[in-house]
């Protein structure tokens, strides 16, 4: 990955090639859609990547109801030396939600209550049937880690 090519807008071709996963009413808080994956090493020097391994996942809201609330939770082993961000883009590339806690410190983030040690989350985003989104899992610091996304509708 070339420096400066670390975001959805600069990696759009990679993002659109990711498979599309349907999110249905079967994905609930007790039984979410689970995506497990591995991030390779990543390290940033301020805002530019030195080594980088961003992952993309496309989802489509496939419900019988017209509207729902989408929650995405990204988890990794804690305690550990990892810092990941979670971003969500519309199918046209517009950023609609993000969670970007400094994941290296113990305790919940007082400025972002949806993030804390070992997790980032986007909660209760109002979505409509057939909406498409791209999830970006962006590591800022990690020697490599197993990560999982939990996705559900309310």
Beta content:
over 45%
Find the count of extended strands (DSSP E, 2+ residues).
11
SS-based structural class? mainly beta
Largest sheet: 7 strands, mixed
Low-pLDDT runs of 5+ residues are: 1-5
Order of helices and strands: HEEEEEEEEEEE
Compute the number of helices: 1
Average pLDDT, all residues: 86
Q: How far do the termini sit from each other?
A: 37 Å
Radius of gyration based on Cα positions: 15 Å
Q: Work out the helicity level.
A: under 10%
Q: Sum up the overall morphology in one term.
A: globular
Could you outline the blueprint of secondary structure elements for this entry?
Blueprint: H1 12-17, E1 20-23, E2 33-39, E3 42-45, E4 48-51, E5 55-61, E6 67-76, E7 83-90, E8 95-99, E9 119-128, E10 132-142, E11 145-153
Parallel strand pairs: 1-5
Antiparallel strand pairs: 2-11, 3-4, 3-10, 5-10, 6-9, 6-11, 7-8, 7-10
Description:
This protein is mostly beta strands. Helix content is 4%, strand content 51%. It has 1 helix and 11 strands; from the N terminus they run H-E-E-E-E-E-E-E-E-E-E-E. It has one helix at 12-17; strands spanning 20-23, 33-39, 42-45, 48-51, 55-61, 67-76, 83-90, 95-99, 119-128, 132-142, 145-153. The strands form 2 sheets. Strands 1, 3, 4, 5, 7, 8 and 10 form a 7-stranded mixed sheet that branches. A 4-stranded antiparallel sheet has the order 2-11-6-9, with no helix packed on it. A hairpin with a 4-residue loop joins strand 7 (83-90) and strand 8. The longest helix is centred in the N-terminal third of the chain and has 6 residues, at 12-17. The chain is globular. The termini are far apart. Residues 1-5 have low confidence and may be disordered.
């Amino acid at each position: 990955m070339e420096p400066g090519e670390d975001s959805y807008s600069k990696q759009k071709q990679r993002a659109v090639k990711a498979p599309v996963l349907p999110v249905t009413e079967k994905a609930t808080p007790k039984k979410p859609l689970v995506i497990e994956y591995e991030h390779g090493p990543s390290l940033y020097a301020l805002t530019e990547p030195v080594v980088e391994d961003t992952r993309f996942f496309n989802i489509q809201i496939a419900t019988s109801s017209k509207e729902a609330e989408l929650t995405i939770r990204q988890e990794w082993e804690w305690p550990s030396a990892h810092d990941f961000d979670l971003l969500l883009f519309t199918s046209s590339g517009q950023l609609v939600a993000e969670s970007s806690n400094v994941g290296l410190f113990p305790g919940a983030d007082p400025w972002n209550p949806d993030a804390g040690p070992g997790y980032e989350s986007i909660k209760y985003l109002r979505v409509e049937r057939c909406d498409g989104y791209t999830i970006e899992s962006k590591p800022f610091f990690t020697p490599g880690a197993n990560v999982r996304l939990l996705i559900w509708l309310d």
